[in-house]
Design brief:
The complex is a heterodimer of chains A (495) and B (744). Chain A has 495 residues and is an alpha/beta fold. Chain A is built from 14 helices and 15 strands. Chain A is globular, with a radius of gyration of 23 Å. By secondary structure, chain B is an all-alpha fold. Classes of the chains: A alpha/beta (495), B mainly alpha (744).
Chain lengths: 495, 744
């Protein structure tokens, strides 16, 4: 073959593969370089609290007695002739699908934690005898931060899985929701299927009747994507911050501004704080994940000129690292400022960065450092093989536990051959008090509310230390930890 | 004096721009209460941090200017090389705990020049006479290749941070502290600009600039073009390495982050008119300061949230438009003439269209499943991928008349497509019905054409690289200012309705796929007819020589307006189809530069001048389905490894491959295989003639950089028809000639 023939062949081959690299791939500009402060887990009525007795904190469970997942008393598998009862339910396996944005060539691994957490849950279940007398099989789908691949993930789940578990996908278009809600079951009936994502970011996804998320959603439904909406704002730690500061809080707020969705989910936090009188804004800045640290000098200057006593980061851990490093360079007296972050700062990189020592963050679940307080937390860390995994994996694992609980309820009622998409949907909707032995605040999945629960941590000497509540294994779940704010969050953003 | 004149002309523009910005700052500052005040401290902070950021842009821009000035190639891969070197420095300095001096020496003085030399030797030197579009796209291919290789080597999902020189230590300037690192950046940027200016005045510098004008002539006057070219690329890579290492501490180490500075670097380089290093430095500093003032005092919230990123493209566009353009290249007409090719006949294209329709009918129906499609489910996903891919092909086809035939470089097909999608969403989809008539597409095309005409009127005087840069700026402006604005409708949850064709609702994916294929076939036939019309001939003439076209009565301006309008109309229709194929479009991530450049790249790899190049998206679809299907089926690791390699590096390598074949795969495939068509006797004859010609020796560089050998002379004399019986005397003469040439 001549060189030109070889070239021609290479060109043809290259063009055939190019779609993998470009068409279905989002550019570095699409990738959300910043991450919104995630909503916390919802839990209006703690299951561990006796009915009619409201409690501000969930009690520390006995580690040794905490059960990771409900266990049926009689063995329903004994002597059962297992059948293929539904798409995704064979005689041997129960198939679920987890979808996450992980495969952009230039931003790989974005929500890999979702995949890792879901797989680890399945491995854990299978190692402990399986689910409904079957092994759990996890299909993975890379949505590549691409709406079309998001739709394809739902089509794949419609064809092969009984439910979706642990997903984190930024763009979910209307066609995907149509597939989620009307996908035909084995009999051809448009039953749809249950989606128990790690979190729901897209408003259309948030408002779907088939979506049950432990993280809750912070906005009212239905919502058209623009205009006013009523939001729940998580303000729990700020009363505590005021106590620590010993004076009214006023300072700067950093909004992740690379995507409309991150702005929309972030702005209600600061507006809720403003409205509740907990924090006054000296200045607000939109930060891009692509901004140089030098641009943060302006934020520090604003803090200096306003005498700010709080810096509130609604963006990701890197934004806080840049802000605090720049504050050091600009000679700001850091001891006079309360550096407040969210779950986004609960990362291995953040805790290892000496420049951010002293930062506070409110965490909606028990920290990894307290693995001795909760057996399933311990099992989770063992299963993922890390002392400090991506925080996305926590709710992915727990989404698996919710699915497990729903399937076990089906089995308890209808036997191991009673599992259908419709029945799983019914049972997931009945999970009204999930807390996984106190690892999370109690969640009522049908209400889609954000959790009022949190534990306040401070980073010292490379480790997160519990500040409040003081007792290990406890979360503060006061109803005053959330507030509502109504407005157009995108219009509120001033750049 | 020239510098002063340039300063005057460019500064006039800059001052005007900054006065407008300043007025808006004051107005905006009063409107937005959450802004920092205009205190001395805040202004000083914006100024000094802006200078530091501007100095970083300057390091990138300087490298681009050096390479362009000395090789004529505008290097898109500058920031990618910088990213690679930054990662390598991190590896040595942070991961392996080397001291800074040896790590810097290895990266900047050894690895970076080597990268430059390799790029020059293997790729860039072969682009010397290539059209600008090929030169640009090859460097784009290099950029993709290096970025993805960097991401793969260092697993870019892992968070890494490169520490600043001297950490957070800083110099107290009163209202602001200037970190040692930023002070170093400023000093290095100035030293580099001064040193390079001195270099350009040296013998080597003069040789560098001579080589880019005329390589052969420069060689005859004693310059060594190959050495000069290698030196330029080595210097460019060294500057990239310095820039990468300097900017990395300001960012999280991430290939795409480190590459995102490119538009700022382009704007700064163009500010220096791609020639003046001091002006590029000034442009970069102004950009840095302007951006920092914008961050501090200009707020684009609400409807204009994403307009904050519009500064660089605005400066780039204004600078390109303000650039003095070179005069018509009347002396180089013969060199630039495109070879005359046989054009497809209309019936041949129509036959191809029918084959295409039948093929897609079979594929979409699962009749041709190659054993890998599961008709029950996978086919829906394959169709869901095929539809946007074919719509993208449609958008790509809009480049055929504009770039392939008329030679107007355009990196903005997605900007025109977005405009079409907007029109479709606003007008055609406003009704209540569940479907929309196919005839709306005609209206979308008609309404999209004026945007193309407008661009032609604004950028009509630009050519080559400048036109390409203007189209980049235009795409960025549309992506930052218009598409994310609520008025565009893309922020809402938008849903594109299916079409109805003559009363038949095309509601399934397969029906829409077939509509796309039929439309593609129709437009391929229309393009073939257009190519053979007087417009097509005018566009080709324009591509060969605007001067010659003008002398035979072709109105260059109106011809450009027409071809831009036709291209914009096609891209607009493609955008409406793309929206329908995807079901929805995103405000900030669908019609953007990062999606536009790959379309241009793929069209160039396929063959920009041939409508059939757009159909290579079909192969993309097949390969994508094959790769993922095999992975799920548990294919062997080595096979998946090959597929992954091709998936990651295929586009970059394909673009680099244009070094060998600049006319694209469609041309090469057609030339190699046309002889198999029964009615193409001409192709059989051409093929036989080409084979015979290949057996003859090539003259190549003989007599210029390469001495004649005896065999060369004998062969040349044979080709010239000199009698064999004179060979003995010829040998003697040839030996003499060879000595003279080699010695000279």
């Amino acid at each position: 073959m001549t060189r030109k023939k070889l070239f021609g062949a290479l060109c043809v081959l290259t063009l055939t593969v190019a779609a993998c690299g470009r068409d279905s791939t989002s550019s570095p500009d699409e990738a959300p370089a910043t991450t919104a402060a995630p909503a916390a887990t919802p839990a209006p009525e703690p299951a561990t609290t006796p009915a009619g007795e409201p409690s501000d904190t969930t009690p520390a469970p006995e580690a040794a007695t905490t059960e990771a997942a409900p266990v049926t008393e009689a063995d329903p598998c004994a002597g059962a002739a297992l059948e293929e009862t539904e798409i995704g339910v064979s005689a041997d396996t129960i198939t679920v699908l987890v979808m996450a944005d992980t495969g952009s060539e230039l931003a790989p691994g974005l929500f890999q934690g979702s995949i890792d957490g879901t797989k680890a849950w399945a491995d854990n279940v299978n190692a402990n005898g399986g689910l409904a007398c079957r092994q759990v099989e996890v299909l993975t789908w890379d949505s590549k931060i691409d709406p079309n691949e998001g739709t394809n993930g739902y089509l794949e789940a419609c064809a092969k899985a009984v439910a979706m578990v642990g997903s984190t996908t930024l763009f979910i278009p209307p066609e995907a929701i149509a597939s989620l809600e009307t996908c035909p079951d084995k009999t051809g009936a448009p039953s749809g299927f249950a989606d128990i994502p790690e979190r729901a970011v897209d408003s259309l996804h948030q408002c779907s009747k088939n979506v049950f998320t432990l993280a809750g959603i912070n906005g009212s439904c239905p919502y058209g994507g623009t205009g006013e909406r009523t939001y729940q704002s998580f303000v729990g730690p700020f009363a505590k911050y005021t106590e620590i500061a010993g004076e009214p809080l006023h300072g700067i707020y950093l909004t992740p501004s690379d995507l409309p969705s991150t702005i929309a989910s972030s702005m209600p936090t600061i507006r809720g704080l403003n409205q509740a009188g907990l924090v006054a804004s000296d200045a607000e800045f939109g930060v891009s994940g692509r901004a140089e640290q030098a641009t943060y000098a302006e934020y520090v200057a604003a803090m200096k000129s306003s005498g700010s006593n709080i810096a509130l980061n609604g963006s990701n851990d890197q934004a806080m690292i840049k802000l605090r490093t720049e504050a050091k360079a600009q000679g700001l007296d850091e001891s006079k400022v309360l550096w407040a972050c969210s779950l986004a700062c609960y990362t291995d990189a953040f805790r290892k960065d000496a420049n951010v020592a002293g930062s506070y963050l409110g965490l909606p679940f028990l920290p990894f450092e307290e693995r001795d307080q909760n057996a399933d937390l311990d099992g989770f860390l063992t299963a993922v093989g890390s002392d400090f995994p991506q925080s996305w994996s926590v709710l992915a694992w727990n989404s698996g536990r919710v699915f497990e609980q729903a399937v076990n309820a089906v089995v308890a009622a209808d036997g191991p051959n009673g599992i259908t998409r419709a029945r799983v949907l019914e049972e997931v909707a009945k999970v009204t008090a999930f807390d996984n032995g106190g690892w999370l605040g109690t969640v009522d999945l049908s209400k889609k509310a954000i959790s009022p629960c949190f534990v306040l941590l401070q980073l010292k000497d490379g480790a997160y230390n519990r500040i409040y509540p003081e007792a290990k294994g406890e979360l503060d779940c006061s109803g005053e930890n959330t507030t509502t704010w109504t407005g157009d969050s995108l219009a509120e953003f001033k750049g | 004096m020239k510098l002063v004149q340039r300063l005057r002309s460019t500064l006039g523009l800059s001052i005007g721009l900054f006065v407008v910005l300043a007025a808006y700052v004051v107005y905006n500052g009063r409107q937005a209460p959450k802004l920092p005040g205009f205190t001395i401290e805040n202004i000083a902070t914006a100024l000094f941090t802006g200078l530091a950021i501007g100095a970083l842009y300057a390091l990138y821009a300087t490298g681009i200017v050096v390479v362009y000035t000395t090789t004529g190639i505008f290097n898109f891969s500058q920031a990618a090389v910088a990213a690679f070197c930054a990662y390598l420095y991190w590896q040595l300095r942070v991961d392996w705990h080397w001291a800074a001096p040896p790590a810097l020496a290895l990266v900047i003085l050894v690895v970076a020049p080597l990268i430059g030399l390799v790029l020059d030797r293997l790729i860039m030197r072969k682009l010397e006479d290539a059209p600008v579009v090929i030169q640009l796209l090859v460097t784009v291919g290099v950029m993709y290749f290096i970025l993805i290789a960097t991401g793969q080597i260092w697993e870019s999902d892992t968070s890494r941070k490169l520490p600043a020189f001297y950490g957070t230590k800083s110099i107290d300037l009163g209202p602001i502290n200037l970190t040692y690192h930023r002070a170093i950046v400023l000093i290095v940027a100035i030293i580099v600009a001064v040193a390079l200016r001195l270099l350009f005045r040296s013998r080597l510098g003069v040789a560098m600039r001579a080589v880019v004008d005329n390589r052969s002539l420069a060689a005859l006057t004693g310059a060594k073009p190959n050495i000069v070219s290698s030196a330029a690329w080595a210097i460019g890579s060294v500057l990239a390495a310095i820039a990468g290492i300097m900017i990395a501490p300001e960012l999280e180490l991430d290939p795409s982050n480190l590459n995102a500075v490119l538009v700022f670097a382009f704007a700064a380089a163009v500010f220096g008119q791609l020639r003046s290093l001091p002006m590029a430095l000034v442009g970069a500093l102004l950009l840095g300061v302007g951006r920092q003032f914008q961050i501090s005092f200009l707020k684009f919230g609400g409807d204009w949230t994403f307009a904050r990123d519009g500064l660089a493209p605005i400066v780039l566009l204004l600078a390109v438009l303000a650039l003095p353009q070179s005069r018509l290249q009347v002396g180089r007409v013969a060199r630039n003439l495109k070879p005359i090719e046989r054009t497809s006949k209309v019936w041949e294209t129509a036959l191809g269209g029918v084959v295409l329709i039948v093929l897609f009918l079979a594929l979409s129906g699962g009749w041709l499943n190659f054993g890998i499609w599961d008709p029950a489910s996978w086919n829906q996903i394959a169709l869901n991928r095929a539809n946007p891919a074919l719509a993208t092909a449609f958008i790509g086809m809009s480049l055929v008349p504009l770039t392939g035939w008329a030679g107007q470089l355009n990196f903005a097909p997605m900007a025109f497509a977005g405009w079409g999608a907007y029109l479709h969403l606003r007008f055609a989809l406003a009704g209540d019905g569940p479907t929309v008539s196919i005839w709306w597409l005609v209206l979308v095309g008609v309404l999209s054409a004026p945007l193309g005409a407008l661009v032609a009127l604004v950028a009509g005087r630009l050519r080559g690289l400048y036109l390409a840069l203007a189209s980049i700026a235009f795409t960025e402006l549309m992506a930052k200012l218009f598409f994310p604005h609520p008025a565009a409708g893309f922020r809402d949850i938008n849903k594109f309705k299916p079409f109805d064709v003559f009363g038949v609702d095309l509601t399934t994916r397969r029906q829409f796929l077939m509509l796309l294929v039929v439309l593609l076939a129709i437009f391929m036939v229309l393009l073939t007819m257009l190519r053979q019309s007087r417009y097509g001939r005018r566009w080709m003439a324009l591509n060969n020589s605007e001067a010659a076209s003008a002398t035979v009565g072709v109105s260059v301006a109106s011809t450009k307006v027409v071809v831009y309008a036709v291209s914009a109309a096609m891209a607009g229709i493609g955008g409406a189809l793309f929206g329908t194929a995807s079901g929805t479009v995103a405000a900030t991530s669908t019609f953007i530069l990062d999606k536009s450049i790959p379309i241009v790249l793929l069209m160039a790899i396929g063959g920009m001048a041939y409508p059939i190049a757009a159909l290579f998206t079909m192969f993309q679809l097949m390969f994508l389905a094959l790769g993922e299907r095999l992975e799920q089926a548990g294919a062997p690791g080595w096979l998946l490894g090959i597929l992954t390699f091709l998936r990651l590096f295929g586009p970059g390598l394909g673009a680099i491959g244009m070094v060998a074949n600049q006319r694209g795969a469609a041309f090469e495939t057609g030339r190699q295989n046309a002889r198999y068509l029964p009615w193409r006797k001409d192709a059989k004859e051409d093929y036989a003639a080409a084979r015979a010609k290949r057996r003859e020796p090539e003259i190549g560089e003989l007599g210029l950089s390469q001495a004649f050998s005896v065999a060369d002379v004998v062969a040349i004399e044979r080709r010239l028809g000199v009698a064999d019986d004179l060979a003995a005397h010829g040998v003697a003469r040839a030996q003499g000639v060879g000595v003279v040439v080699a010695g000279g």
